[in-house]
C-alpha cells in the first residue's frame, strides 16, 4: 500500500494522516487546522519538521527561541487539565519532544550531529569511523604533553612556567577548535545552498561525509580543550 | 551510569601503563581512536620472534573509564599468548568480562582494534604480510 507523503520542503517525508478527532488531513502539524485538537507525533518526523523548518543548518536563534516559547505555551500540559487522558498524553509527548528538539537545534554542533544522525550518516557506535593516522599521532602527543604538565604540576614543578605552558596549550587547542568550527560552518552553508538549489544527491552525500569527518576531528580537539581547561581551573 | 566493579578496578589500578621502544623491531605499536567520543588508545607489544609469544604489553589511553579498563584488560590478556591467540581475542570477550553497557561497546572495539593494529605493525616489521582490516562488524549492533 502506498502512503501519501507531503512534498512540501518543511514537511518532506512526513506521512499525511487524518485528525483523530475530525478526520481532516494533517501533515505533522501540532494541532489540526480544522478542529484545533493536538495531534500525535508522526513517525520519523525530524526536529526540523517539529519547528516547521527545512533540513538546513543555518537557523536564526531569535526566531527559533520565539517559536519555542510560543509552542511551549500552546502545548503546555496546564492547557489540557480538563482534556481527555488521550489528549493530555499527546500534549506531554509533544512538550517533551519540543524540549529535545529545541535543545538540539539551538546548538550549532548538536544541530549538525542531529542532521547526520537523522539522515543515517552518523550512528553512535555502529559505523566504524577511523581517524587518519596523522591526526591520531598528533592528538596522542598533545594528550601526552598535557599529561606531562599535569604530572609536573602534581610533583610541585615550577608553577609559573607550567602555567605559561598550559596557557599556551590552551590557546593552541582553542584555535584548533575555532578552525574546525569555522570549517563546519562553511560546510553547513554549502549544505544549505545544496538544499535550496536542489543540489544533486552525490554532492549532498559528499558534503554530509565531510561534515561527519569534521565532527569526528572536533571530538578529539574538544577533549583536549576540556582537559587543559580542567587543569587551569583546578 | 554506573560502572561495573571490574571497570572501576582496572580504572583505579590500570595494569601495564607505559610505553615500549617504538624503534625495537620486536615491538609492535597500535594507535587507534574513537571519533564518537574523542578517545585515543596506544597499545604496544613486545613479541619473541622465535616463539611468537607476547612477552610484554603496555598501553596508554586518553579516554573514559571503560576505554582505560578495556585497554588495561587487553594488555593483561595478551601477555603470554602467541600472536595468533592474541588476534583471536574479540571485543565481545572484553564486553563480557567488564560487563560493559551497550553505549560503551565501542571502547571494547577500540581495544580489539588496538591489538590488531599493534600486531599488524609487528608483522610488518618482521617482514610478514600485513593484516587484513579488523573484522569486528558483527559486534556493532
DSSP, total strands of chain B: 3
Helix content of chain A: 55-70%
- Tell me the number of structural domains of chain A: 2
Distance between the termini of chain B: 20 Å
Mean pLDDT of chain A: 86
CATH topology of chain B: Sufe protein. Chain: A
Task: Give me the Rg of chain A, rounded.
Answer: 23 Å
Q: Give the CA-based shape of chain A.
A: elongated
The stretches of 5 or more residues of chain B where confidence is low (pLDDT under 50) are: 134-141
Query: What summary fits the major beta sheet of chain B?
Result: 3 strands, antiparallel
Give the ordered list of helices and strands of chain A. EEHHHHHHH
Any overview of this molecule?
The complex is a heterodimer of chains A (234) and B (141). Chain A is mostly helical. Chain A has two domains: 17-106, DnaJ domain (Helix Hairpins); 133-233. Chain A has helices at 47-50, 61-75, 85-106, 108-118, 133-154, 159-196, 201-233, and strands at residues 17-18, 25-26. Chain A has a two-stranded antiparallel ribbon with strand order 1-2. The N and C termini of chain A lie far apart (62 Å). In chain A, 22% of the residues are buried. Chain B has 141 residues and is an alpha+beta fold. Chain B has a single domain (5-124), classed as Sufe protein. Chain: A (Alpha-Beta Complex), CATH 3.90.1010.10. Chain B is built from five helices and three strands, in the order αβββαααα. Chain B has helices at residues 5-12, 65-78, 83-87, 91-98, 105-125; strands spanning 27-34, 39-47, 54-62. In chain B, strands 1-2-3 form a three-stranded antiparallel beta sheet. Chain B is globular, with a radius of gyration of 14 Å. The two termini of chain B are 20 Å apart. The relative contact order of chain B is 0.20. At the A-B interface, helix 5 and helix 7 of A face strand 1, strand 2 and helix 5 of B.
Amino acid at each position: 500500500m502506498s502512503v501519501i507523503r507531503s512534498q512540501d520542503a518543511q514537511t518532506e517525508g512526513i506521512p499525511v494522516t487524518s485528525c483523530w478527532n475530525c478526520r481532516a488531513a494533517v501533515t505533522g502539524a501540532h494541532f489540526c487546522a480544522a478542529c484545533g485538537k493536538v495531534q500525535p507525533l508522526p513517525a520519523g518526523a525530524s526536529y526540523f519538521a517539529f519547528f516547521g523548518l527545512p533540513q538546513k543548518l543555518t537557523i536564526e536563534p531569535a526566531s527559533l527561541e520565539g517559536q519555542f516559547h510560543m509552542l511551549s505555551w500552546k502545548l503546555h500540559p496546564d492547557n489540557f487539565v480538563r482534556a481527555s487522558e488521550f489528549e493530555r498524553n499527546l500534549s506531554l509527548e509533544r512538550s517533551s519532544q519540543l524540549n529535545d528538539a529545541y535543545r538540539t537545534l539551538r546548538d550549532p554542533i548538536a544541530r549538525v550531529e542531529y542532521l547526520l544522525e537523522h539522515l543515517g550518516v552518523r550512528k553512535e557506535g555502529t559505523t566504524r569511523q577511523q581517524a587518519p593516522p596523522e591526526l591520531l599521532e598528533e592528538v596522542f602527543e598533545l594528550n601526552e604533553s598535557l599529561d606531562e604538565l599535569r604530572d609536573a604540576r602534581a610533583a610541585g614543578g615550577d608553577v609559573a612556567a607550567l602555567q605559561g605552558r598550559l596557557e599556551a596549550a590552551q590557546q593552541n587547542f582553542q584555535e584548533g577548535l575555532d578552525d574546525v568550527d569555522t570549517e563546519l560552518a562553511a560546510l553547513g552553508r554549502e549544505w544549505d545552498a545544496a538544499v535550496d538549489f536542489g543540489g544533486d544527491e552525490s554532492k549532498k552525500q559528499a558534503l554530509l561525509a565531510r561534515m561527519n569527518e569534521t565532527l569526528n576531528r572536533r571530538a578529539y580537539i574538544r577533549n583536549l580543550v576540556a582537559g587543559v581547561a580542567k587543569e587551569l581551573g583546578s | 551510569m554506573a560502572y561495573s566493579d571490574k571497570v572501576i578496578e582496572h580504572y583505579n589500578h590500570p595494569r601495564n601503563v607505559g610505553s615500549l621502544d617504538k624503534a625495537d623491531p620486536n615491538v609492535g605499536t597500535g594507535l587507534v581512536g574513537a571519533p564518537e567520543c574523542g578517545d585515543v588508545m596506544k597499545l604496544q607489544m613486545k613479541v619473541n620472534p622465535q616463539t611468537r609469544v607476547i612477552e610484554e604489553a603496555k598501553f596508554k589511553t586518553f579516554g573514559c573509564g571503560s576505554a582505560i579498563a578495556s585497554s588495561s584488560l587487553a594488555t593483561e590478556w595478551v601477555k603470554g599468548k602467541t600472536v595468533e591467540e592474541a588476534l583471536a581475542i574479540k571485543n565481545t570477550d572484553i564486553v563480557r568480562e567488564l560487563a560493559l553497557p551497550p553505549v560503551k561497546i565501542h571502547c571494547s572495539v577500540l581495544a580489539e582494534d588496538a591489538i590488531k593494529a599493534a600486531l599488524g605493525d609487528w608483522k610488518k616489521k618482521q617482514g610478514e604480510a600485513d593484516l587484513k582490516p579488523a573484522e569486528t562488524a558483527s559486534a556493532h549492533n
